[in-house]
Amino acid sequence: MPTDSRRRQILGSLAATGLAAAGVGPARAQAWPSKPIRIFVGFNPGGTTDPYARVYGEILGQRLNAPVVVENRPGAGGTLSLGALAREPADGHTIGITTSTSVWGARTLYRRLPYDADRDFVPLGWFPVGPLLMAVPSTLPVNDVKEWVDYARKNPVSMASYGPASVPHLATEEFNKRYGTKINVVHYKGEGPMWPDVSTSVTQAGIGSYMALAPHIARGSVKVLASVGDERSPKLPQVTSFASQGFDGEIFRLSGGLLMVAPAATPEDVLQRISQAFVEGADSPKAVALREAFAIGDKPTTMDEAKRKWREESPIWIRLTDQLGIKLD
């Protein structure tokens, strides 16, 4: 007859085997979410990442009946925030939102990153931001992109950028390489501090979202010269695209967007629940108001569509960023 200690060992082994057979391990035994969910934002308030995080964070919290906290962690073009996210447990309690540059282009800008985007993250959804807009100080004597390029050939000019390898950064490279300009790029920690400098002629141009630009348009301190991508901004239908004005580089044809991501080892059912909450919440009053305010036509995508964009578009961003030929560390 087994001793008491032997009996306990056998019973323990049987119990463990039963749990494994049922697919119920320690991580599964605990209900999710079991604590507040955090959303890391790689930029300061003032652009598109912060309001997207707050609106969809509220939607997620309501659908899961759990508190959601947004944490702004700006710096290094969003890579500091992603580095912190990569160190978080993959338990569905921490996710992040950032630009495509941070997850795709940054790998060519930095010799060492605190994450490998393809290995460490999985996209939860692609969040369109509408056509990005190029604007200049209203006092600048130009009215379209060609006139601005001609002006830049003859005068010292700088382009405001919301981060390294962003659309304005890549556009500056395109102008300098193909059109003989010597435009300097000035990087800011997001769009919030960027547009005031454009509006007061500290810099001579910027490219960014309608929402961040709108107050300066309303004050008449900037004028919009062109839009990125194929669509026109519904708020500014008179503004034509770069391509229609003869500037056909790849960077001027890409559609902008943000990626909501989670640590790659997060359980699949948790990823699906988060993604589904975003998709289903896209018609809520606050989500509709957000798209209206930002002049965004499209809703956030499913997780599968975000994965497709990752596969198909990340090589383009990586190649364009690599062509900059710079390292930031």
UniProtKB/TrEMBL annotation:
Q: Which InterPro entries match?
A: BUG, Bug_dom1, TAT_signal
SUPFAM superfamilies per the record? Answer: Periplasmic binding protein-like II
- Domain of life of the native organism: Bacteria
Which keywords describe this protein according to UniProt?
Receptor
Asked if the record carries the keyword Methyltransferase, the reply is: no
Pfam families, alphabetized: TctC (PF03401)
- Please tell me whether the keyword Electron transport is annotated for this protein: no
What family name appears in the similarity comment?
A: Belongs to the UPF0065 (bug) family.
User: Per its record, how is this protein called by name?
Assistant: Tripartite-type tricarboxylate transporter receptor subunit TctC
- Species classification: Bacteria, Pseudomonadati, Pseudomonadota, Betaproteobacteria, Burkholderiales
